[in-house]
Design a protein that fits this description.
The protein is mainly α and 191 residues long. The chain has a domain at 26-103 and 139-190. Helix content is 59%, strand content 11%. The protein contains six helices and three strands. It has helices spanning 15-43, 47-56, 60-74, 80-102, 138-161, 171-182, and strands at 105-109, 113-121, 129-135. Strands 1-2-3 form a three-stranded antiparallel β-sheet, with no helix packed on it. The longest helix is centred in the first third of the chain and has 29 residues, at 15-43. It is elongated, with a radius of gyration of 23 Å.
């Protein structure tokens, strides 16, 4: 163990692993709160109403889909590529967040490694419950926390960038109006 922060306590755990796990969970909560603020801006409601809406939608995937549908409908098209990038990163990082929050772990197995124990229903158990042990190194957790910090910072800046770029009309109506302006009307006798 080359680093003082990696010290093993009396139970054989690495306290730094638990500290970073807590930090990751708190950062994720902040990201979800930022998404609620975004929803409030799109819906034109205060943060409390937006948090009620977001808190009522169960599951990260369902919340991401809801936010994506709102953004794809009302957010200015110039900001959509950046928004889509955020959603893609959230999906990827969300899997690790769920592992940290919901999967049993063995921290510092034999003084060397951290393992996560996922449930699986395997052929070896004839479709019955089995366990999938995977490594979860401390450094991977450090990188994950840094990734969440970066995402959160970029998301906050993005929320400011959205000011003045959320439309009242749905994209389908805006684009239909743009087509009417661009395409000259043809009289029936010219068709």
């Amino acid at each position: 163990m080359g680093n003082v922060t990696d010290a093993v306590n009396l139970q054989g755990d690495i306290p730094e692993f638990h500290r970073l796990t807590g930090e990751a969970i708190r950062l994720w909560a902040g990201i979800e709160n930022d998404l609620s603020m975004f929803v409030g801006a799109i819906l034109g409601v205060d943060q409390f109403r937006a948090r009620i809406v977001m808190g009522t939608i169960l599951g990260s995937r369902a919340r991401r889909e809801f936010v994506t549908r709102l953004a794809e409908t009302y957010l200015d098209s110039a900001l959509l590529p950046k928004f889509r990038g955020f959603m893609k990163r959230m999906k990827s990082l969300g899997a690790t967040r769920n592992t940290l929050a919901h999967t049993p772990m063995h921290v510092n197995v034999k003084g060397k490694e951290n393992k996560v124990m996922g449930d699986t229903f395997s052929e070896a158990m004839d479709g019955g419950l089995d366990f999938d042990f995977r490594d979860f190194p401390l450094n991977d957790l450090r990188v994950f926390v840094r990734s969440l910090e970066t995402l959160r910072g970029e998301l906050v800046v993005f929320l400011y960038d959205c000011d003045g770029h959320i439309h009242v009309d749905a994209r389908v109506h805006r684009e239909a109006e743009q087509r009417r302006v661009v395409e000259p009307k043809t009289r029936p006798d010219q068709a």
